[in-house]
Amino acid sequence: MFRSRKPALDFAMRFFSSKYDISAQRDIGIIAHIDAGKTTTTERMLYVSGKTKRIGNVDEGDTITDFLPQERSRGITIQSAAISFNWQSKYKLNLIDTPGHADFTFEVIRALKVLDGCVTILDAVAGVEAQTEKVWKQAKGIPKICFINKMDRSGAGFSRTAKELMVKLKTRVLLVNAPVFDGVEASGEPMFKGVLDVVNQKILRWDTSDPENVSVSEIIEGSPYWGELVKLRESLVETLSEFDEHLVEYFLDTAEGDYMKIPSDLMNVSIRKCLLAGYATPVLCGASFRNIGVQPLLDAVVNYLPSPLEARWPEFNYEVPVAIDRKNGAIINKNKNLCVAQAFKVITDPIRGIMIYVRVYAGSLNSGFSAYNSTTGAKFKMGKLVVMHANLAEEIKQLRCGEIGVLTGSTVSENVRTGDTIIAHNVKKDGLRSLDKVKELGLRINPIDTPPPVFSAAIEPRTLGNKKLMEESIAALIREDPSLHISADEETGQTLLSGMGQLHLEIAKDRLLNELNADVEVGKVMVSFKETLNSCTALKQIETETGYRLSIVVEPLEDAEATKNASEDWHSLSTDNNFLIVEKSATYSASNWPLQISYEQFVNALASSSIVALQKNGRIANFPLHSCAVRVKRDWEVPTDTASVAQVLTLSRSLIFEAFKELSDSSFDILEPIMNVSVAVKQEDMGSVLQDLTGARKANILSIDDEHTLDSSQDADITFQKLADEQYLPADNTLNRANISTGATVNKVIRGMVPLKEMVSYMNKLRSLTQGRGTYHMFYHGMEKVSNDRLASILEEY
């Protein structure tokens, strides 16, 4: 059961000075579709835990985690925010609140890389929405609990949402609690007052004006909720028993077949075991805005989600032994003094300057110690360490295994970027020399993939004197948000800023003008087209008198994963599915590297040349290249004593440009971004909307479903549909909403794939066609070749 708010307040003052207990830590994130209630739930968590003394409100623009001016004015989360707080006088929670808008999906991607567990918020009225499905897939492999929010709203359906969860997200459910309704709202809807705690066999009712005022009552046999509790407990035990043999033994032997005699502690252990094994998902409900159900949710976080000791380990660039020590966390390569951390986010603070968010996976980071960036090969000194409470910083001396904190200092900001792996020594200030050069200093973890930009806008300074400030401001933006990209045309002098969507670029423009004070003009937002090679390749070679030999091929890349092999080193060139492929030399290797420059510097020089060349050499319309590879053949040689990064840059860049010149115009195709689109409309509006999509929008329609139909998808998993039909669920008058036969009252969902260019400003058209009743959601699917009938008009416009 949850505790009151006061012990958390008392404990907050002594947590950091107490003995560190890694098993009592949880690194969690809040993920969901936009407007499901992520930030509202976070605010209630902070209040009931004692972290804050007042409850922030999204509508009033005074929330803790949404602290950017753009977030407070728009009422949406734009960037992920980290905050730490305590619960139950024992546990420390490091929480990251993530955005729900598709334009800021990169914020979700990089947060998920460092999280051990997630809370997925579902809107009880809307059910499992498109962006929920997307973030669920992005969080694949991460244990998740679900919180069905907004149970106080008209049309809320706990059981319908739980059923959608099973079918759409392909998971069994463990109903840890269920809604309790007392009385009737003025609208005639039942009044949501609390939850039925299935595990502890109690009813919790909240005074909505005071979130700390919770009445807890036992459910005894014969009381109004006894029958419902018995059915829910029986269903929960039956699901757990399919996985947990120990629970079956206890049920048959000790509990004598009585579902009500199984103690709550044993059930919590079983639920945790099922969740960590990926077998089932615990489900809770509440109404965060009315302060209902947040304390049981926090209890579920600490009871069911993993500690850093139990969580999945990151991806390593090569196999390395990892042992778990309950006191110190992970021990990598049998070296207790090795610290490994990952930088996953960069922000610019007006006072502290550039701040690098990191997650420590092994050992500890110490203020003032030397560290090594194994991604770039740079050595630097650690500045001050801080932990963040949204936008407030608290200085600390050490970041330990499993903790999330921030690095500061000029040497850090110059040498660390998003996704970099940081290696350090636990004990010695300059202990890097004692670490193995290949096995430990060469270790890299958790690559963070940046999604490709789909919209671009021309940007230029108002005067020539403002050009330097513009470049510095753009560099600051991209350092913080690598999903923004900049490209410059040397011939025309035009600079393009590219991002994930119109809102993404709008926010970037606002920050440039109002936060970074860059005096710039930002042009019309346009779709980002690309070019690619079809089946053609080109090879160029050079051999210099100074000892350099390079043979470079530019080639199309169809399936990177399928074509990789052990004789090659693959290096992603950021976005656009482009790769540098360095065939392993018979003379040199990362472990046998006698050259003056490091292997990382050599590869980074080749990668820099490749990135520049791939931005410039689209032959048809000078668009950047997509799905291409720059291959360095295995006969490459570099002089041992005189090699320099500058020379490698110059030679490789020249070769790549010359290789592209060998190709004819017919070697290139134009690609455009294709979006997955879901349009929800009333049935009477479906004809006109469908005609517009297939005609003006060039859409490929995949399906037309009732909004809440659970089994209409062609690829629906029959197994989970059957499980959903067999699952016991409380009475819910919205369960059959999708099956109402009176046509006009049913919303239809049209799903399809549409060229992004045709969806620009679509909302205005949809409002016109549906009298403002239609809604749509879209997210990036991939790049596809432009059809011949549209090619001429695109080239004319761009």
UniProtKB/TrEMBL annotation:
Keyword annotations of the record: GTP-binding, Mitochondrion, Nucleotide-binding, Protein biosynthesis
- GO BP of this protein: mitochondrial translation; ribosome disassembly
| Gene Ontology molecular functions | GTP binding; GTPase activity
Principal location listed in the UniProt entry? mitochondrion
Coiled-coil regions listed in the entry: none
The UniProt record lists the Tr-type G domain at 23-309
Task: Report whether Membrane shows up as a keyword of the record.
Answer: no
> Superkingdom of this entry's organism?
Eukaryota
> CDD domains this protein is in?
EF-G (cd01886), EFG_III (cd16262), EFG_mtEFG_C (cd03713)
Cellular localisation: Mitochondrion
Q: Which residues of this UniProt protein bind GTP?
A: 32-39, 97-101, 149-152
A GO CC annotation recorded here is: mitochondrial matrix
What family is reported? Belongs to the TRAFAC class translation factor GTPase superfamily. Classic translation factor GTPase family. EF-G/EF-2 subfamily.
Task of the protein: Mitochondrial GTPase that mediates the disassembly of ribosomes from messenger RNA at the termination of mitochondrial protein biosynthesis. Not involved in the GTP-dependent ribosomal translocation step during translation elongation.
In terms of HAMAP family, this protein maps to:
mEF_G_2
What is this protein called in UniProt? Ribosome-releasing factor 2, mitochondrial
Organism from which the protein derives:
Lachancea meyersii CBS 8951
Gene encoding the protein? MEF2
